[in-house]
Structure formats: C-alpha cells, structure tokens
Amino acid sequence: MSAWNSSKLLYNMPFFLIGTALCDMEFLEEWRPLDYLRFDNIWLAILRNCVLGFLFLSYGMVDKYGCLYTYDNRCFWVSAITIDRMMPWWCGLFIGTLAMVFLVLLSDAA
C-alpha cells in the first residue's frame, strides 16, 4: 500500500478517537483520571513537560519516507530512536501524538 492510494483519514482516526476520549474524560464531575498526573510541585511539572515535549519532537517526526526526500536514506536520529527501523513508523507517530495530547491536557496554560 503506497501513500498515494491509502487514505490519510484512516491513519489518523485512532489518534482522533483517543484524543477525544481523553478530552471527554476531563469533563466528568466525579472522577477526572488525569488529575493523578498533575503535580503541585513545579519542578516535577517542568520535568514532565520536558519529557513529553522531547517525546513529541523526537517521535513526531518519524515517517515512512527518507530524511529529506522520498528516495533518501533515513536520518541518523530517526534510525536511532526507532532502533534501526525495527519499530514501525506508525508507532512513532502514535507515541508523538499521545505525548502532545498529554502535554496539552496536563498543562495549566492550555
């Protein structure tokens, strides 16, 4: 299956559904599950946000093509974080997307 004949909507549907479910859980009145991950200590919150930002920036750029062009080899960083391409590209996309969703839902500014 190539990128030209596959639907991008089907690739992004799981991310949309998980993000929507997590956002809807935040509006429950009795129990908000993400409150356990919110820290009162500012240093733990900064560390959590840095780790989530690093995961988003690192795994969010993983794709199934080359470094700059389709026919290039993989970049060194992409090869390193995907364990020499043993991890599928959609797993990296999944990790990056969930990191950004949690970063947005757990920060006070958003």
What does it look like?
- There is one protein chain.
- This protein has 110 residues and is an all-alpha fold.
- It has helices at 8-25, 42-59, 76-81, 89-106.
- The N and C termini lie far apart (38 Å).
Describe the structure in brief:
The chain has 110 residues and is mainly α. The chain contains four helices and no strands.
Q: Kindly state the mean pLDDT as a whole number?
A: 80
Report the helical percentage: 40-55%
The SSE order reads HHHH
The SS-based structural class is mainly alpha
Share in β-strands: under 5%
Q: What Rg is obtained from the alpha carbons, in whole angstroms?
A: 17 Å
| Main sheet overview | none
Global shape: flat
DSSP E strands, number: 0
Question: Count of DSSP helices?
Answer: 4
List segments where confidence is low: pLDDT < 50 over at least 5 consecutive residues: none
Q: What is the end-to-end distance?
A: 38 Å
List strands and helices in order, with pairings.
Elements: H1 8-25, H2 42-59, H3 76-81, H4 89-106
Helix pairs in contact: 1-4, 2-4
Descriptive terms for the model:
110 residues, mainly alpha, 55% helix, flat
